[in-house]
Amino acid sequence: MPKTLESQLLLDRPLSTYEVTQWQDGQQVQAQDCLAEETPVALIYNGVSHAVMLATAQDLEDFALGFSLSEGIVQNMTELYGVEVRVQAEGIELHCDIASERFMQLKDRRRTLAGKTGCGLCGAESLSQAMRYPQPLQSETMYSATSIKRGLLAIQAQQLMQKETGATHASAFVLADGTVSIVREDVGRHNALDKLIGALQKMRTQQGQQFDGFIITTSRASFEMVQKTATAGVAMLVAVSAPTGLAVRVAEQCGLALVGFARQNRFVVYTHNERILNQ
């Protein structure tokens, strides 16, 4: 199959079926297995390539917006004028048209990278650029322990790709009453969160209001997951796995309630336990 056609098909269905051999108790059985696909996705701003991510080829406009916001490339949704999805032989390009002021800032950042060895973090040429600490959250929202449990239960039914493949992460925005409002999935946990942030910003803009709620991630809570959540103005992150030490310290500093090892019948609160009500 030509590579361009393969990339186009991934936009329609980012899953593939393969013939496999299952081994169990010494017996072999031929079967079909459904796998999640990942493809290179290039983020291009005003004609200049900035980053290439391996991602699942769905909700790509949400991904472009969420990535642009969480990486500080734009400050708000109005500075991203449009996103064009272009299928190429080797993957997918997201052509983002951003405000001239933001593009000049992005070019200045890239100019400092010329001729230098990269540190491995997107668009960063120094430790200070790599470690972009979020501003203190102004939210005083309180969260119910029951809402956390409801959200954890509800997200399972909405992880459609995970059900088919067992290979994707999900991020969900959960309303204060425990209702799951938005779910986004991807093979990468950061990508799933960026997609969610983009979709959440669209919902806020369309409905003209902020929403009290929190984010659930089906992964661990690293520094970047805390940074992205806080930058999106969400004051609690619930992770099904462990946080890192840096994530805990940053969450404490910026006012983010951070919950780890979240299950329906238990969870561990690492920061700002006073924000969670026992009801």
What does this structure look like?
This protein is of the alpha/beta class and 279 residues long. The chain is built from 9 helices and 14 strands. A 6-stranded mixed beta sheet has the order 9-8-10-11-12-13. Strand 5 (80-88) and strand 6 (91-98) form a beta hairpin. Helix 2 crosses helix 7, helix 7 packs parallel to helix 8 and helix 8 (223-231) packs parallel to helix 9. The radius of gyration is 20 Å and the shape is globular.
Summarize the structure.
Helices cover 34% and strands 31% of the residues. It is an alpha/beta fold and 279 residues long. It folds into two domains: 132 residues, Ubiquitin-like (UB roll) (Roll), CATH 3.10.20.10; 135 residues, 3-Layer(aba) Sandwich (Cytidine Deaminase, domain 2), CATH 3.40.140.
List keywords for this structure.
single chain; 279 residues; alpha/beta; Ubiquitin-like (UB roll); Cytidine Deaminase, domain 2; 2 domains; six-stranded mixed sheet; four-stranded mixed sheet; 9 helices; globular
Which CATH class of the largest domain?
Answer: Alpha Beta
Q: Provide the CATH architecture of the largest domain.
A: 3-Layer(aba) Sandwich
Q: Count of DSSP helices?
A: 9
| N-C termini distance | 56 Å
Q: What is the residue-mean pLDDT, rounded to a whole number?
A: 90
Helicity, as a percent range: 25-40%
**Secondary structure category:** alpha/beta
Any chance you could write out the topology, listing elements then pairs?
Layout lengths: L2 H10 L2 E10 L2 E10 L2 E7 L2 E8 L4 H11 L9 E9 L2 E8 L1 H12 L15 H4 L12 E2 H13 L2 H6 L3 E7 L4 E7 L2 H19 L5 E5 L5 H9 L4 E4 L5 H10 L2 E4 L7 E4 L4 E2 L2
Parallel strand pairs: 3-6, 7-14, 10-11, 11-12
Antiparallel strand pairs: 1-2, 3-4, 5-6, 8-9, 8-10, 12-13
